[in-house]
Amino acid sequence: MSTSKHDKFFARSILLLQELSENGSKTVGELAEIFGVNKRTIYRDIERLHFFPIELEKGKGTVRIAKGFALENPKLQDLELLVAELAFDSIRNINEETDKHLSSIRAKILNPTFFSPYEIKPEAYEEINMDSELVTKIEDAIKKRNISKVKSNECISVVEPYKVVAFNGFWYLMAKDRADKKIKTYMMAKMQEFYATTEVFDSKYIDIDKLLENVHSAWFDDGNCFEVVIKIKPQAANYFKLKKHLTSQKIVEEKKDGTLIVSFEVSHDEDVDNLIKSWLPHVEVVSPTRLRDKLFKELQSYLRELQEY
User: Which of the following CATH numbers is that of domain 133-212: 3.40.50, 2.30.30, 1.10.3470, 2.70.98?
Assistant: First the structure.
């Protein structure tokens, strides 16, 4: 297919999708008249647009968007999809394996374009330039296991970089501080410098992915672990039964009135601080009493400031 034919197909396809989305079903004849082409061209267009949920009722020649789907934002997303499809077309039928991969890719990029009864609100993340010099240096050091130097807040740490991790929407480098042998988090937005040496560290004793399963916040304190027990009133109990808010969450007891006793294994108070505060007044810290007293004082201080303000 020549470039001009690609362009015509491209433009016609966008208009065809918009026509079906905005005005409902059309016959092949009606579409051919609208776009000034013959019916064979419309049939060929529909065949090439098979990755969209378009239905063709062959007996009547009626074309429609499949029931249960509604095209959203066609001007932008469909342009992107059609560009991808034209690129796919150039490598179609090379072999069976390639066609399988193309089919898989189409399925993945198509799903967000059409209406779904499900809506998942993703967490907002701090913007990070993946092509920046800093990020490139960190990625390279992690891959090569190079001992590196991190400068943050005018302090220089010699570290073994393991992983870039997001906590609460902010990006951190998880790395072992060579000075005290503890794994720590280094906020990337606060890094002033990052320098990788040519010296390689031995990582065979560190399973960072396993470690991260029980890391709950950027306040992770390597080597420290304690239990926090909270009491959850019946009004909020179901939300803790349906979902683990932290990976270490365990339901210790469910009382007759629906109250839950829940425990967490954490390494720092901040691992559970925001969780507890977000469920007030429906939760109460049972232990440790130190954390209970700390939370009580913070709330008293907050109320005093409100009154003074």
Answer: 2.30.30
Question: Hey, what CATH class is 3-113 in?
Answer: mainly alpha
CATH number of 226-308: 3.30.70
Domain with CATH 2.30.30 in the chain: 133-212
C-beta separation of 138 from 161 below 8 A: yes
For 128-173, the pLDDT digits (tens) are: 777 788 989 999 999 999 999 999 888 999 999 999 998 888 999 9
pTM of the model: 0.59
